[in-house]
Amino acid sequence: MADEPEESSTLASRVYARLRQDVIAGTLPPGSKLALDKLRARYAVGMTPLREALYRLSATLLVEAHDQRGFRVAALNLAHFEQVLSARERLETLMLEDSIRDGDAAWLDRVVAAHAALDRLPMYTTADATALNLDWRQQHQDFHYATLSGSRHFLQDMFHRLLWDHWSRYRNLLRPPPLQEAVLKLDHARLTEAIVARDGEMAALILRRHIRHGAAAIMTVLKST
Amino acid sequence: MADEPEESSTLASRVYARLRQDVIAGTLPPGSKLALDKLRARYAVGMTPLREALYRLSATLLVEAHDQRGFRVAALNLAHFEQVLSARERLETLMLEDSIRDGDAAWLDRVVAAHAALDRLPMYTTADATALNLDWRQQHQDFHYATLSGSRHFLQDMFHRLLWDHWSRYRNLLRPPPLQEAVLKLDHARLTEAIVARDGEMAALILRRHIRHGAAAIMTVLKST
DNA sequence: CGGCTCCAGAATTTCGAAATTAATGCGAGG
DNA sequence: CCTCGCATTAATTTCGAAATTCTGGAGCCG
After folding, report:
1. Residue–nucleotide distance: B46 CA to C7 C1' (Å)
2. Residue A4 — pLDDT band, cuts 50, 70, 90?
3. Which of A77, A93, A175, B65 has the smallest count of CB within 10 Å of its CB?
4. What is the pLDDT of residues B70-128, one digit of tens each?
5. By the CB < 8 Å criterion, does A33 face chain B?
6. Which residues partner with A72 through β-bridges?
């Protein structure tokens, strides 16, 4: 269920995983230039695996590759976010309806289990709520992946993962993360309920609202700058 | 309109373009192992730009990268093709309806112009029809890109290009290419007509049939092996 | 006889530096 | 004072070889 194998055997793959995380988390700021020498020192690797990792990331649009001018972290802006939002709404509702139509009993079990696991975890560990519980975030992702995985389409899966990565970059702009644990818990519960009832239309409706709700907070930030 | 800049300034980008073409054309057979030394000789480049190009291609699923075990051209099979087909149907009809809803007059002009250019070109140059006219194929691609480009969504564009590449690999299995110039000409004409009339529903219907028609011939070949 | 280990040989991966190209700063001319 | 061109500096790109890992087969043990 994890996103990357913990221990890839090649340096290039390990650097790729770390670079991806750092771009998504915002550790490498949006739009910033990626000085190869700095990165080489930062990750303690040679030129070759570093460039290989950067080129792989450039194919996912998380970084831009400019011939003879190096690499740059992809910028974040409202126009881009609206495209991610629209693509996510369309793709995820489609995948959800497919899953509900085609998914078997084992899939339903996975969804229910993932929801139970998510429901058990607290969203915040610290009292002041400045930091999101990273376990929660991972389980949240796993839950949503599970709901969409009833009808296996590796191409759609790939698109979905890509969109999720881009979406995560925007969500990580919200610091501190907004407090809406009750609302989210309810969304997830109702979504699971609709899936178990095999009510595709209802599930898609809930999911669409869930996505739009998350988008609202992000768009406020993007418009304010 | 061309797919790749004729003269990328880095070796890595040029090798990437050539590798991509060779994978799509089938010059590098589906499923075959990509021996690095052989490729290095074939394209007359060093190890570094070659690996960078291969990693970029691996992110598009045209080649598979296996850590410590090199690279392999992605295999072709019926299950995979069905996913490409389904994804193409959904994505292209969506993009077409978006374009018809949002596209401006300049876009309509581009569509009409692209269709006129396509209609002028013959599908085959040789009398025996063993070889497709490459100009026609390029213009065919340009025409379809044009129809879908009324509402600019770079993410959807990227997905669409990816699907087109994968589709082209399957289409290139058909040797000699099937003779159906009249049918295709009619499809394109009717599609253009529906677009000019801003009839999204009709255009989507024609496009869906157009895609399925092309899929039928491919699936026959895939099932026979 | 089947399966396991170990040993070349072959392939992939990685490094460090050389070659090439872009960016910078300085001085001359308009 | 600003602009253009040139030399210098800095960065990216590329190569060739070293280091590491995989592969296939021979030999050995159960």
Report:
1. 31
2. very low
3. A175
4. 999 999 999 999 999 999 999 999 999 999 999 999 999 999 999 999 999 988 776 66
5. no
6. A33, A64
3 state SS of B1: coil
Task: For residue A84, list chain B residues with Cβ-Cβ distance below 8 A.
Answer: 155
Q: Give the nucleotide nearest to B70 (CA→C1').
A: C12
Closest CA to B148 of B100, B88, B84: B100
Q: Which residues touch strand D (CB under 7 A)?
A: A 9, 33-37, 47-48, 51, 65-71; B 10-12, 45-49, 52, 68-69
pLDDT in tens, A95-132: 999 999 999 999 999 999 999 999 999 887 766 666 67
- Which residue in A83, A154, A156 is closest to B154 by CB distance? A83
CA distance B159 to B171: 18
- Decide if B220 touches A, using CB distance below 8 A: no
Q: How confident is the model at residue A199 (pLDDT cuts 50, 70, 90)?
A: very high
**Is A55 an interface residue toward B (CB < 8 Å)?**
yes
CA atoms of A163 and A184, how far apart (whole Å): 20
Torsion angles phi and psi, residue A71, rounded to 5: -120, 160
CATH 1.20.120.530 fits B78-224, yes or no: yes
B11-73: CATH number:
1.10.10.10
- Asked, colleague to colleague, whether B11-73 and B78-224 share their fold, the answer is no
Protein-contacted positions of strand D (CB under 7 Å): 11-17, 21-23
Buried b / exposed e over B143-158, threshold 16 CB at 10 Å, is: bbbbbbbbbebebbeb
Domain ranges of chain B: 11-73, 78-224
Cβ–Cβ < 8 Å for A31, A70:
no
pTM (2 d.p.): 0.91
Checking each nucleotide's C1' against the CA of B66, the nearest proves to be C12
User: Between residues A90 and A175, which one has the greater pLDDT?
Assistant: A90
